[in-house]
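Try it yourself: sequence plus iron/sulfur cluster, in.
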Amino acid sequence: MTLFFKGGNFGNVSFKYFKDQRSRFVDRFSKRGMDVQIALDLNRLMTDKSYVAALDERIETFKNSSLDFEISMATNIVQGVEGILYAAIDYVRDRYETVIEVLPSVVRSFNHSAKHGDKLFEWNDMLTRLAADPHRFKNKFHFLQGDVSHKAFHYSVVSLHQGNMYMSPFIYENAQLHTNDFVVLKENSLVDSILNKKQEIVNSQIKKSVDKECGSCKYLNICANRMVPMIMDTVFDGRKECILNKDVIGLYDDEVYSGNSY
Ligand code: SF4
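Structure, out:
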């Protein structure tokens, strides 16, 4: 599971570690809101009673804690999940009153192999199928790429790797890419370093968008802040065509997305 507190990400910890260190967490975070995200195996969630019992125990532990926890669930997309995804979303909403955040792990296929990027395009196709009933999709699916405020103008995500800091693009989820294109060079102030790097990337993407599909796209400003065109320039070696599913993103054009799917 992943623990977030207001202002930062504590990182991945095991449930056992959390229970063993509970008093330490209380001392350290008792004045801050906490967010805990539990990774789910949807196949087991829907078929394995012992798995659900263990999950119940975890949820109860957080509910009974003196800390102020919010709980969400996350899942990767693996074989067989597409057919049970909506049933799992309903199950989690009814049983635990929370959402499932789908993390398709598309960035893992950004490796310049022969099948480079396949997972991203498979995910785009899966989104089209999941959104065949737009009403159901919009009411049940936690689709962050359709939320124009999520990970865009007011938000910078960074990752640390071997002593360096890198900007994290948002391609359906935060991407950890540790290449020079995204490295943050340290200036006097850490915040200035991050904001300056983000501004540099955003401006350069907008300037270089003319010969790409992005140049005439209404989502350019949002995507530039999420660093999507930069991914097309770097990871996809100057690809000109969109790498996202714009039809599904477009389902949210006429509304203010509230960021949840209750
Ligand atoms: S990445 Fe796709 S959705 Fe984003 S600006 Fe470019 S063409 Fe538009």
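One thing you can check immediately is this: Residues 190-207 form the longest helix (18 residues).
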